[in-house]
Amino acid sequence: MNRDFLKELLNTPSVSGHEEHIQEKALGFGRGFAQTQLTDPSGNAVSVVNPEAEHKILLCGHIDEIGFLVTYIDDSGRLRLMKDGGVSPKLYIGSPVQVIHDGRRVPGVVATCSDLLEKDKVKDTDLLVDIGASSKEEAEKLVSVGDPVCADTEVRELMNGLFTCRALDDKTGAFVVLEAAKLAAEKGAKMGIYAATTVGEETSGRGAYYAAARIKPDCCIAVDVTWASDAPGGDPGDTGEVKLSGGPVLCRATAVNKRMNALLEETAKELGIKLQYEVAAGHTGTDGDTVNRTLEGVPMALVSIPLRYMHSSVEVGSWRDLEECIELLAGFIVRLSQEMEKGFDFCTVRV
């Protein structure tokens, strides 16, 4: 598992709708194992193993992150913002941010004042970014309306094999699907493996739709993060008991294919990987939902990575969980390749 590659992804801004630069890095990593690669008008990047194979599995991990867009530059050179994705504006007061303009990073800070801190509900339109400009004209030399803005953080190692940064949601998932495809190829999997780092999940889900509609997979595994119940305020009674370093999280949901889940459980048992479980009634809130509704319907499973402090600039994850997710997915693909040759059926009801 290439930790340096994940750190590179996490340190590369990719606010939803502005994923071009990070996709270049994803494609660069994929060239190390893929026989071919695909891109599409939405901005997806797909690394493919065994492109001529009859049966295909789509692995989805979204590579976009939450952030803001610049809506206005005032006369003093400060920037007004609109949120892009599920942002909690209050978390950004007094925080360092970066504005991305034509691939260049412009540092700034979100202004703080007592009136703003005392507000019960802070809106995105309440925030002002100070880049040090003294006038609108000076600011416009560096930034433009429409530029993406995100927290200015870098990966930091914590105790007990944990690490923190912004955008573990879901660059860790994008990392896992690439590493899992690579490992499955090394293990000799015969089926077509389409490792897609998808775009736009935080805002529209368009990337997963484009990928599934084009690839037409037999099945899909979405890899995303999920709430860890061992964080302050976490309640295992909400959706399940999920702990960091506790292993991959398998979702039991109405949208999830039960036969895929059963095969994932068998694979985990064979590999000695302990699974955790979460429950979702109806939608899972991930790319898996989008893929599941594409074409005539695509059988889908959701494997999640435990995460603390989701949608903040200090998300916390576990290296061990990532390693086990990669091993689980690679083992599943090898096993599914064998089962597909025997006529594996995703249907749970038969005539």
TrEMBL record:
Cofactor(s), by name: a divalent metal cation
Q: Where is the active site?
A: E201
Q: Does the keyword Chaperone apply?
A: no
Coiled-coil spans in chain: none
Record GO terms (molecular function): aminopeptidase activity; metal ion binding
Organism field: Acutalibacter muris
Q: Which residues bind Zn(2+) 1?
A: H62, D169, D224
Q: Keyword Protease on this protein?
A: yes
Question: Which residues participate in Zn(2+) 2 binding?
Answer: D169, E202, H311
Q: Report keywords, A-Z.
A: Aminopeptidase, Hydrolase, Metal-binding, Protease
One GO biological process from the UniProt record? proteolysis
Can you quote the record's cofactor note? Binds 2 divalent metal cations per subunit.
The name this protein goes by in its record: M20/M25/M40 family metallo-hydrolase
Tell me its family. Belongs to the peptidase M42 family.
